[in-house]
Amino acid sequence: MGNFTGPDTDHWPVVEARWYKKITNKSRVVHRVVIHTMEAPETANTAENVAKYFQGLPKNRQASAHLCIDNNSIVQCVLDNHVAYAAPGANSDGIQLELAGYAAQGAADWSDNYSTALLENAANAAAQYCLKYDLPRKHLTNTELEKGHEGIIGHDQATAVFKLGSHTDPGKHFPWDHFIKRVEFYYAERKKQLGLS
Ligand SMILES: [Zn+2]
Known about the structure:
The protein is an alpha/beta fold and about 200 residues long. It has a single domain, classed as Peptidoglycan recognition protein-like (Lysozyme-like, 3-Layer(aba) Sandwich). The chain is built from six helices and seven strands, in the order E-E-H-E-E-E-E-H-H-H-E-H-H. The strands form two sheets. Strands 4-3-6-2-7 form a five-stranded mixed beta sheet. Strands 1-5 form a two-stranded antiparallel sheet. A hairpin with a 4-residue loop joins strand 3 and strand 4. Zinc ion (ZN) binds next to loops.
């Protein structure tokens, strides 16, 4: 598992980040999808704006992600085979998804119209990566992450398990149960569309 074995994802518009590690000599093995919040306001252009932000960062602020996602669009900033600089400890074998909004959001914020649309886009993208890299559609516990299991985690879990950095996104009210259900939905839909059983 984790190798590139499944169908490719959609091809989203690309705004190339300035800082990431290029891997060109092999197919990167991916074990986990990592969920982040951008700590940026919920607007229709947040994915585009944060992609531009990643493009303009100075040398002393090297950060990036594979996808920036908002309520109406997805922008790819780092191609899948390259390593984005998003979650120390979980970068080299991770696909990094940045979601519009804040780690401090409460349950009500996560279920408003904007976040509901955002979570659909993010779940759809995460499902595509689970299919591409043959990953379980599962929110790992910290213990499972520590043991090297494959699945979906938050940046906060990489912080806790690898003891690197201090980021707590996507926050303690991120609706994991709802999110994983939607990932399962899109995973099944895509398999059906592709004629896979
Ligand atoms: Zn993060």
